[in-house]
Amino acid sequence: MRRSGTRRSLSGAGRVCALMLALALTLGSCGVLSELFGEKEPPRDRAASLMEHFEDRYFLSALDDTRLAAVCDIYEAAMAFEPSCALERLSSEELSQVLTLIAAECPELFQLDYTGSFTGLTDRSGKFVSLDLVYLMDEGKYRERRRACEEVLDGFVRDTAGLDAEGRERFVFDAVAASCRYDLSSSCAGTAWGALVDRRAKCDGVSAAFKWAMEALDIPCVTLTADVVGGVVGHAWNAVELDGEWYRVDLTQSTRIQEFEDAGLHGIIYFAFNISDDFVTERYEVLDAFASVRPLPVCARMDRSYYALHGLYIENDARRDEIAARELAALPEEGGTFTLQFATPEAVQALPAALTPLVSASHPHASWTCQTLPYNVCVVTVKP
């Protein structure tokens, strides 16, 4: 059945409206319309497109949309080497937290200089609407250095193929500890490039390199920074997750440190390879920038520490005498060294008195020394 009605043609204005509607539908379907009207991609989607392994970045992935959007703004601007970055009204505390988390969770963003006080434009309420970005290097140098870092990371992936997670972690730990010298003088000492390629770095550079390597090897890892209780110098270290359990790793302490080499200590000493929180909670106070985002990883076990795995971790006096006697008996006639780790500082202090009769029994004519080191580690050296 044919319906009756009036047929109308569009006026000029009507045709324009129709064309605008069609254009809006087309632009909206491809996401351009939202950009034209100032709407951005949701922060989580944007972060995932900007950063590899975003969901594995322990703290960034837990941020609210406001702070995560700021992370994305800064990340994108830094990758483009823009002199400044527009922000959507952040307080100085929020901006400080965002920069702390970027420095800890984005080791690939090592072109940025995080050391100075941040500057930018603020509105009448004092909130930041832009951030000035300061760079340690130009874009060409950054691209060159990033490629060099990625070559090292690719080597880690290649050389650890077939190993379990703990084996991959230990390989990286040994490689960086053996090659990197602790150094405060380099302008890039706080970067992953400093630790991986230049081989001169301090704690933040070493921990950034370790996190980047763990990310490449699919091992969950976080970087934590802290203030030293009662001190003025901060510190940075990592925590890794192995089979659902978290362990602390302070690789910096095992890098080549001139003070230890001057004391005759060479080779890798595993001060803090997969240790528990008990060794650091009294000495370091993790910055609130981390703890306010989500609970810190709890590292409660010692079963995968270097010393526990090698039967050299001592929790009580009976074990101390048993293990020390065993290690002394294993030394050749010309003497040698062995290293122990203790659960408490008090146990470390009691070691020399306990060693005296044990050394006399196994090496009656030898001299010996006991060097006390960080993380309740002792190096015992016996000489004929």
Largest beta-sheet details: 5 strands, antiparallel
Q: Would you report the number of β strands? A: 13
Unreliable sequence segments: 1-37
Number of domains: 3
* Anisotropy-based shape: elongated
- Please give the count of helices: 14
CATH topology heading of the largest domain: C8orf32 fold
Order of helices and strands: HHHHEHEHHEHEHEEEHEEHHEHEHEE
Which range does the strand content fall in?
A: 15-25%
What's the SSE blueprint?
Layout: H1 12-29, H2 32-36, H3 43-50, H4 65-79, E1 84-90, H5 92-105, E2 128-132, H6 139-159, H7 165-179, E3 181-182, H8 192-198, E4 200-201, H9 203-216, E5 221-228, E6 234-242, E7 245-249, H10 258-262, E8 273-275, E9 284-286, H11 288-291, H12 306-309, E10 313-314, H13 317-330, E11 336-342, H14 345-362, E12 367-373, E13 377-383
Parallel strand pairs: 3-4, 10-11
Antiparallel strand pairs: 1-2, 5-6, 5-9, 6-7, 7-8, 11-13, 12-13
Helix pairs in contact: 3-4, 4-5, 6-8, 7-9, 8-9, 13-14
Any overview of this molecule?
The chain is α+β, with helices and mostly antiparallel strands and 384 residues long. It has helices at 12-29, 32-36, 43-50, 65-79, 92-105, 139-159, 165-179, 192-198, 203-216, 258-262, 288-291, 306-309, 317-330, 345-362; strands at residues 84-90, 128-132, 181-182, 200-201, 221-228, 234-242, 245-249, 273-275, 284-286, 313-314, 336-342, 367-373, 377-383. It folds into three domains: 40-132, no CATH class; 139-308, C8orf32 fold (Roll); 311-383, 2-Layer Sandwich (Ribosomal Protein S8, Chain: A, domain 1), CATH 3.30.1370. Helix 7 runs antiparallel to helix 9, helix 8 packs across helix 9 and helix 13 packs across helix 14. It starts with 11 loop residues before the first helix and ends with a strand.
